Every structure is written in C-alpha cells, then in structure tokens.
Amino acid sequence: MPVKTGDRVNYVKYGGTELTYNGSKHKLISDNDIVCKFTGDELTMENAEMVFDNVLVKVEEKEDDESTGGILLAKTSKGRVTKPSTGEVVKVGPGKTAINGAKMEMEVKVGDFIKFRDFAGEKVNIEGRDYSAVRMVDILARF
Predict the structure, then answer these.
(1) CA 29 from chain center: how many Å?
(2) What domains lie within the chain, and their CATH numbers?
(3) For the chain, which residues score pLDDT lower than 50?
(4) Staple partner for 56: which of 20, 37, 91, 127, CB 3.0–4.6 Å?
(5) First-residue to last-residue Cα distance in the chain
(6) pLDDT averaged over the chain?
(7) What is the pLDDT of residue 78?
(8) pTM recorded for the entire structure
C-alpha cells in the first residue's frame, strides 16, 4: 500500500465509490487511483510525494494560434485552451513493484522534458499552479 493512516491523498477525478459509514460520507478508492500523497493541511511542492509510477509534470497552458495541421485559426476561434501534453518532470514516484517483489526502475528523472498521450494525466493544483500527474505507461517520449 502506498499510503498509511493519516496521509492525505490526491486521486483521479472520477475514481472511487461514495458510501456512508457511521453516518458520515466517505469515498472508497483503489490504491491505483491515488496519484500523490502528502502530510499536513495543504499540498505543497515540498510535501508532495508521487506514488507508484506517477510522474508530476510542470505543463504550460497556452492558447492555440493554429490547428494541429498548421492552419492559422480565426480570431473567433482563438481562446480555446487545449489540454497540454508536454512538460518538465518535477517529481517522480518510486516505480511499480514487479510480481517478484523487485522495484521497476523509472525511465524518467526530474528535469527531463516529456511528451505524454493527449488527454492523459490528472490535473493537480499545487500552490496555485496546475500540474499533471502522468503514469509511465502514458509517456511517449523524453527529450
């Protein structure tokens, strides 16, 4: 288990099942839905810890000036914000554990720039800035 009692977690947006336990609402989530954990009241870069094979990516939001085919967009089309799929790795999880108990080595490190699958990654807000938590299987290239 990547977490212990008292840890706070960020998990995937649509993960888990809501239930009522002892009169209080709770959410039952799978450990695979957890992207990072932290201690304290607030998630910060200092206390954020990625779990499993999750990687925290600093992405840049930008408006589209042209389509993916290179066609310039009309002013009425501008202002669309697409989900970013490239960025700089700022935190790396410890990796998954193989069936034989050995840790699987992560193939990226802090400071690498990566391209990941379009629409992959989970938005994580840390100290007022948006990042993406991306699993290793969704990383397509490192540069």
Answers:
(1) 16
(2) 46-142 (2.30.33.40)
(3) none
(4) 91
(5) 32
(6) 87
(7) 52
(8) 0.80
